[in-house]
Design goal:
single chain, 207 residues, 7-stranded mixed beta sheet, 5 helices, 7 strands, 29% helix
């Protein structure tokens, strides 16, 4: 049974989605993932988005570890109901509504999001049926809602190719855990222009 690993609700069991509808992140992978995110110092006070949330395990873990607000996005009825149960659990422990569940497909959710909606930490564990072109389109929509120092984590089968990153997002790390591979990415920021690279203006012609 999956559980919240650390934080305010550490050790609390989570409800799982019945059947084989989702591909839950194992506790081993989750523990390694959050150890790395703790090292990045991106969880405390973060605005977190968990896309294709399944049971909401990653988002709820973020809430337990001090995230300011967490949005879980899941389109399936059974899975979103499980998300709600797990959200209610962590919200009860925290004594506030830190985690919100959105029953929606990912693409419409991102398209409806306000221009001012930004997230600091985003998890994507897309279904096998979403191909690389489809994932790239989602990442492109997502990129307009990332804070400048945001971290994006894409979870895929270790047999899947590297995501096709849009020009607005760049990968900075990856890690394989058995059958799971995690890709870490951030918003692309063009290198600052060096003053030496700016051509000097021509001298004005003499009179």
């Amino acid at each position: 049974m999956s559980r919240i690993i650390a934080g305010a609700a550490g050790g609390t069991p989570l409800t799982a989605v019945p059947g084989s509808l989702t591909r839950p992140t194992t506790d081993r992978v989750k523990e390694a993932l959050f150890s790395r995110l703790d090292a990045f110092n991106v969880i405390a006070g973060a605005r977190v988005l968990d896309l294709y949330a399944g049971s909401g395990s990653l988002g709820v873990e973020s809430g337990s570890r001090g995230a300011q607000a967490v949005d879980l996005v899941e389109s399936d009825g059974k899975a979103s109901a499980v998300c709600q149960r797990n959200a209610d659990l962590i919200n009860g422990v925290l004594g506030r509504k830190a985690v919100t569940v959105h029953r929606s497909k990912v693409e419409p959710f991102l398209e409806r999001a306000s221009e001012t909606a930004v997230w600091d930490l985003v998890f994507l564990d897309p279904p096998y049926l979403l191909d690389e072109v489809g994932l790239q389109a989602v990442l492109l929509k997502l990129s307009t809602h990332l804070s400048p120092a945001a971290v994006v984590v894409v979870e895929r089968s270790s047999r899947s190719p590297e995501p096709q990153w849009p020009d607005t997002i760049t990968r900075f790390a990856e890690k394989k855990y058995g059958e799971t591979r995690l890709w870490f990415a951030e918003p692309f920021v063009p290198d600052a222009i060096d003053d030496d690279d700016i051509p000097e203006a021509p001298e004005p012609p003499g009179r």
